[in-house]
Amino acid sequence: MSSIIIVLIILVVLVFIALVKTIQVIPQASAAIVERFGRYTRTLNAGLNIVVPFIDSIRNRIDLREQVVPFPPQPVITQDNLVVNIDTVIYYQVTDARAATYEVASYIQAIEQLTVTTLRNIIGGMDLERTLTSREEINAALRGVLDEATGKWGIRVNRVELKAIEPPTSIQDSMEKQMRADRDKRAAILQAEGVRQSEILRAEGEKQSSILRAEGEAKAAALKAEGEAQAIRTVFESIHAGDADQKLLAYQYLQMLPKIAEGDANKLWIVPSEIGDALKGLSGAMGNFGPMGGGSGFNPQNPGKSAGADGNGAGTGANGTDRREQPPID
Q1: Stated pTM of the model
Q2: Residue in 153, 34, 43 with CA at minimum distance from that of residue 99
Q3: Average pLDDT, whole number, for the chain?
């Protein structure tokens, strides 16, 4: 009995193992390569799959999702004989599990070596400045070469990125100095432009201010002159409206003489010759005026005496006026 039980146990174990090997569950976005006696038979897709136990075997399980592989820095020589270290990142995806298994021994290592060689070919035709400013061009060229070469391996390269481009330390120092000088130059130019624009605006402001000030002064002078002309015109019209004669004008002038004589500095008076003609009409009425000619003078200290009588007169000028120097009136 014991031997039969042992045999049954062995049979149960064998059946369990056979079931395990018969039923294969493949996860989503994965594939499995099935070989029968070492020869490729089929590719198992995601889900439940049945294989022949002890005859079919799973050679390789491949992830069909997009993969990201960073490669270590690689030294590359530029066209101007400078060594730069370039870090690259590859985004790839397996599209054919059979080709990825049988067409290349290790597609990761193959992609890395192909990336290095292609990168050296591309960078070798560029100088350092173009290398640092042509990342998109390098990425596109590198992706085109890798995608063409890895197509037969069942690999699709989606993207290639240059993670870092590191020039030599001495070149970095020179580039920093150059960039610092360029920034200082741009700052000086901007400052000079600002000062120039400020001076221009200030000059334009002063110009506009001077123009407005001159226009204001001109308008003020014109208004003042117009006001004075209007005042003279009004006085003139009033005199003509009142029909003033020479006697009235002479009387008004006599009333203004004390005001004219005010102050110690008033030494010289100018008496119009027409006043003498006007005073002739008043001489008969007042009895204090002597006979005056058209060119005779007038003494404000003694209106009834002419300048020629007391010997203080200066004579009559050519313009019809008498000029005399009189003492100040207290």
Answers
A1: 0.50
A2: 153
A3: 77
